[in-house]
Amino acid sequence: MLDFSDLSVVDVHCHPYIRKEKLSADDWVAEVSFGGGSAEYLQEGGIEVDDAVLAMLQRLKRDTLYFRYMLRRLAEYFQVEATVEAVVEARNRAIADEGYAVYAQRLHQASGIETLIVDDGHPLPQVDLGSFRAEVGVEVAPVFRIEVLIQQLLDEVSSWPEFQRAYDDGIAAALSDGGYKGLKSIIAYRTGLDIDPRSRSSAQGMIALEKIRRARGRGGDAIKNLRDHLFCRAIERCIEFDVPFQVHTGMGDWEVHLAACRPALLMELLRYPAYRACKFLLVHTGYPYHAEAGYIANVLPNIWCDLSEGLPFAGNAGARIIAEVLEMAPPSRVCYGSDTYGSPEPFYTSALLGKQALAQALQALINDGFMSAAQAQESAKMILSDNARELYGI
Amino acid sequence: MLDFSDLSVVDVHCHPYIRKEKLSADDWVAEVSFGGGSAEYLQEGGIEVDDAVLAMLQRLKRDTLYFRYMLRRLAEYFQVEATVEAVVEARNRAIADEGYAVYAQRLHQASGIETLIVDDGHPLPQVDLGSFRAEVGVEVAPVFRIEVLIQQLLDEVSSWPEFQRAYDDGIAAALSDGGYKGLKSIIAYRTGLDIDPRSRSSAQGMIALEKIRRARGRGGDAIKNLRDHLFCRAIERCIEFDVPFQVHTGMGDWEVHLAACRPALLMELLRYPAYRACKFLLVHTGYPYHAEAGYIANVLPNIWCDLSEGLPFAGNAGARIIAEVLEMAPPSRVCYGSDTYGSPEPFYTSALLGKQALAQALQALINDGFMSAAQAQESAKMILSDNARELYGI
Amino acid sequence: MLDFSDLSVVDVHCHPYIRKEKLSADDWVAEVSFGGGSAEYLQEGGIEVDDAVLAMLQRLKRDTLYFRYMLRRLAEYFQVEATVEAVVEARNRAIADEGYAVYAQRLHQASGIETLIVDDGHPLPQVDLGSFRAEVGVEVAPVFRIEVLIQQLLDEVSSWPEFQRAYDDGIAAALSDGGYKGLKSIIAYRTGLDIDPRSRSSAQGMIALEKIRRARGRGGDAIKNLRDHLFCRAIERCIEFDVPFQVHTGMGDWEVHLAACRPALLMELLRYPAYRACKFLLVHTGYPYHAEAGYIANVLPNIWCDLSEGLPFAGNAGARIIAEVLEMAPPSRVCYGSDTYGSPEPFYTSALLGKQALAQALQALINDGFMSAAQAQESAKMILSDNARELYGI
User: Fold this and answer.
1) Choosing among B63, B253, B265, which should be mutated to test the C contact, i.e. which has the most C CBs within 10 A?
2) Which of A27, A320, B125, B261 is the most exposed place for a label (fewest CB within 10 A)?
3) Going by C-beta distance under 8 Å and a sequence separation of 6 or more, which residues neighbour residue A368?
């Protein structure tokens, strides 16, 4: 069996977080589990959240394969029993003993993580990256989520000329002085990936904004037209600054627009002549529609696939996602990512799972005559770090 | 290899049938095979159904992996050659020898089946459940298919006040005195799963019914609006009576609305605040879109996945479906089901296949570090019976 | 492990090509790789194509699993090192030594290829089939791509009566005297597979053509209405001449209508009574939506699945595609195809990969109790050649 334990890792998609030195078992579960199904969600539906409901929600999260895997790996790391209580106690104690930064750095070193490319658009309010950097002890390179800026402008700005200028300036400032290495969009959570590529003209933005301002909730497609336009505008900035554009595709938490998050819906836009110079990273490689992302990364020259979220949150899916993405996408177009957040532990277990899944997938490819052992080794290195380093110039 | 032969089984989704003590080989094939591709289907298309066509249809059904598997398992059971003729002869003889009820009960015992949760909305006219119960020799708990009632009201009732009252009363009667343990909908066969969650108001039902009555076939979206409204109304009854709602998703026979049967299309409805208290069972776990169902069962707290139809009718798909559903859905949210009908034999072979597929899928999870052997045993028990028992309170 | 090396092969879907006796390494890569991502594509987007870009494009194609597999198999065949340069040199030398026809014939014999069913609608201008036949040394049976005729009529004919007559006559001539064995459509590249089955009336064609002629690019749905009508008309010709209709589904190069190429979208049309007598071959079995194609081939009686394009261009996907198609489709409804073009080598490696993938998939089915070894052997023979021979009467 292949073994990639020693390879270094760039996590091409994850989120910063606020340091929490001491957590209860339940709170730790809430911090590191995959989103959704929360108590607030039920309360909004008029359901009384009593102890039984809270216990049900905890069980739901703890029962997933992803969670069980994480627990077993952390139990090995801490040399404790594989129970939430034992693992969380060991974590809290280790942080108390050696300090947060040393604790985090050790975990990252143990899994080979050298760089985190973070989307600081989640959680909100935004985490201070200076503090985060100091606490995680590895290189941190942020990408700029356009929806944070869009929301701010929707809240504050009325006139289109001003909106347009503030949008362009905000992005330019982020990419020039702000230290951001690229852009990110979660339009798949808003109006969906069926973005009309002919949305470039400033007139579309103006008309849409005007409708939204006047409509008081009856704007029809105006909000979609505005978001489509701003997405196209963001592509043009990426080309201008020669930085990649991360686009959320596929699964998210319960708020994603599930019927309109398939990578296939992006195809019209991606192949539009004006946007062919932009490098796109299809975040989450569209899981469970990842074969579409792999296909696009084959037939178009500027598309990368990020394995995050399916890996690790879909547990046993890791090797399958990698194998199915590689059916069409060349290994030079696939990047490891985790989409983890909340605490250093899931970053660690995700990297371990990623290496295990990669070893399993590539071993099968060797066995079936699709690559040599040397090519598998080279592919693993590219997927775990080199491709992301080349893409982001780090 | 894991072995779940001894575990008991609740079949969370299947259909009652009329006892047929003696069948010809061809008729047995027609009874127990997966629907569609029939002689009537071709005749409707103006095709003359001669012996050659009938032979082709028989071959089509007998050639599938599902059918071959069933035949081999029944040949083992009856200790005869694995041909249709030998198996059907053995079946007819056993029924003649020991009586139908004993025959059925022995088959169910041999595969561990203890309870059948049946949708008596298929076949039509409805099978008498009293007789069925007596003949199958295991516990039978029915769910109420709303489309049977809807069709009856469309045929008989003109005014909306009367329609609405009869619909509510019909459901309430079924759930209180009728012995029904929950509701079921096949709206995926009618107007599709993209149900507008804002269809709750009685006004929508009234306007839609009026349009249908006046339109003489030119009602536009009226029939969809009516069905969407009645679906939402049914959710509210499920919440009121605290019973689960089975919703067909994914494959069916040739009549399903294939372009609008994906679980993802249900998402807007499932997360609508007013419906969050309802427990939904995604029937067929949306196969071949089962990853979507598993995802929804992870991010929303009241969603269960029923493995039926893909298992057993998609033959070798069983282990894959289970593995892919468990990528996101916790084992506590997955139920065994068969969707079988027609005769006791497919209930038996489906349970055997389910146990084999489950053993294969869970063994791989143990091997890859996602669960312990004890957790696999516990998961199998939950999936084969406990989850369904808890969900239906049986 | 099963071994199908000795079985003969009918390639149910591939393309003729112009003989090229001597190729540079880069040109050979361009000829035999999967389409898309080319230099022209980038140039259209205003990107300067310099040496670095050309090197990137070459790397993209050479890096895919499909390409690596092909290279390794050809290196074995030529007994040279597994580098592009060595393989292309060996190829050029062999052609120079033994002549093109002998070279091609030897490759085909080595993989068992006996018949190529070719769509001569690609590449354009059309390859002369007489010369192609002489050069490939195996039986060649063409199918007629309706879009070539449609484009020609759109370019040349204004009146609907003339268009309609020329369309019908063109198809009839191809199927009677032209030697074509059936029709083919790539409507999935144009207006998508959601073809309205009620498009049969000549009036729809007339109105649509008139709108197109007057609209100067603002014809709305007219072009879709026209193509839908001509597709339905083509179905009726297939029924009349009793020949199969190949319909592109699923992946293509970057020009396919990715959001509207899923086989599920065809379902409404396929089950429309007037078309039930037509035999449809779902080209590429809709990969990566191949489970949909397999499902349709189960529930409708006149549907065949062609494995081409996913096999070989999706590299390691072969065994998975076969296994997943066979979940529902009986083996008597599945045909081997390659969709290869450009030079004899990919036809050879595709057949080898097809046999390997088939062996792997069927072996797993034997192991899991879904077929006997004898049934696996019979299934392989059907899939590799018998089904296509029966379907095309060759």
Assistant:
1) B63
2) B125
3) C316, C319, C356, C360
Q: Do B317 and C301 touch (CB under 8 A)?
A: no
A chain contacts of residue C310, beta-carbon cutoff 8 Å: 327
Model ipTM value: 0.96
Contact C276 B315 (CB under 8 A): no
Q: How far A149 CA sits from the closest chain C CA (Å)?
A: 28
Query: Quick one: what percent of chain A has pLDDT higher than 90?
Result: 92
Q: What is the distance in angstroms between the Cα of A167 and the nearest Cα belonging to chain B? A: 30
Partner chains of C (3+ C-beta pairs under 8 Å)? A, B
Backbone angles phi, psi at C5, to 5 degrees: -50, -35
Please tell me the predicted confidence (pLDDT) of residue A105.
96
Please give the structure tokens belonging to residue B330.
């916790």
3-state secondary structure of B52: helix
Q: Which chains touch B (3 or more CB pairs under 8 A)?
A: A, C
A228 in Cβ contact with A199 (< 8 Å): yes
**How many Å lie between the alpha carbon of B130 and the closest alpha carbon of chain A?**
37
- Work out the pLDDT band at A220, boundaries 50, 70, 90: confident
Q: What is the pLDDT of residues B244-264, one digit of tens each?
A: 999 999 999 899 999 999 999
pLDDT per residue as tens digits for the range A350-371:
999 999 999 999 999 999 999 9
Domains (range + CATH), chain A: 10-14+113-392 (3.20.20.140), 22-98 (no CATH)
One-letter amino acid for residue A113 of the chain: I
Q: What tokens appear for B121 in the block?
A: 């909305």
pLDDT of residue B73: 97
Average pLDDT over residues C277-300: 97
- The per-residue pLDDT for A37 is 73
**A316 to chain B nearest CA, in Å?**
6
Spell out the alpha helix ranges (H) of chain C.
25-32, 39-44, 51-63, 65-78, 84-98, 100-111, 129-136, 146-156, 160-176, 187-190, 202-215, 222-241, 267-270, 290-299, 310-313, 318-325, 344-367, 373-381, 387-392
Strand partners, C118: C14, C142
Q: What is the pTM of this model?
A: 0.97
Across all residues in chain A, what is the average pLDDT?
95
- Mutation test of the interface with chain C: which of B41, B49, B50, B65, choosing the one with the most C Cβ atoms within 10 A? B65
Interchain pair A68, B277: CB under 8 A? no
Q: What is the pLDDT of residues C189-242, one digit of tens each?
A: 999 999 999 999 999 999 899 888 887 656 678 999 999 999 999 999 999 999
Cβ separation B370–A45 shorter than 8 A: no
Residue to mutate among B196, B280, B328, B379, with most A CBs inside 10 A, is: B328
Tell which residue, C87, C233, C215, has the closest CA to residue C169: C233
Question: What are the CA-CA distances from residue C329 to residues A266, C296, C389 (Å)?
Answer: 31, 8, 18
